[in-house]
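USER: Please consider what follows.
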Amino acid sequence: DDPMQRIGLYRSLLAQRKLFVLLANVRDESQVRPLLAQTSHSQVVITSRARLLGLDDTHRIDLDVFTRAESIALIGRLAGGARVQSEYEATDAIAEICGDLPLAVNIAGRRIAARAEWSIAYTAGQLADHDRLMDALCVGDVNVRDRFAEAYRQLPAVGRQAVQQLGPAGPGW
C-alpha cells in the first residue's frame, strides 16, 4: 500500500531487467521524477505536451503535425495501401480534415480499417460534417475530444480565456 515501496520495487526491476517503459501524457516533472532511475539496462520514454525542462539527462524530440505524405502513408498502413491508392483524393481530404494531426489521422485510418465495406470517400463524408467531427474522431476509448479537453484543462487561466475568445465552440469539443 505504500507508494514509496512500490517506487522502490519498480526501480529495482529497472535495475535488474531490460525494460522499455512508456510514460504517456505526462503533466509535469513531479509526476514522473520518482519513476526515473539511472540504469544502463532499461529505457524510459515520456510523452507530454509540456517540455518537462526540469528533467535531467533527457533527449527531447519535438513532434509536429504530419506532412500530408506522412498522413496518407499512415492511413495506408492502417487501412491498406491499395485502398488508399484507389481513393487517393478521398484519403487526401481526410488528412486535410484532420489537419494532419497524428492522433486524428490515426483514428481516421483505424475507422477505415475497421469498416472494409465502407469506402474511404464515405468516411471522408462523415468527417466533413464539422458539427459531428469530434464525434466521428473516435475509435474504441480513444478520441480527439478527450485529448483536446485535457490539453485545455492544463492551460493556465489566460490560455483558456484565449481559446474561448477564438471561437464560439470553445471548449465544447
Remarks:
- The CA atoms of residues 12 and 81 lie 44 Å apart.
- The chain has a mean pLDDT of 90.
- The longest strand covers residues 20-23.
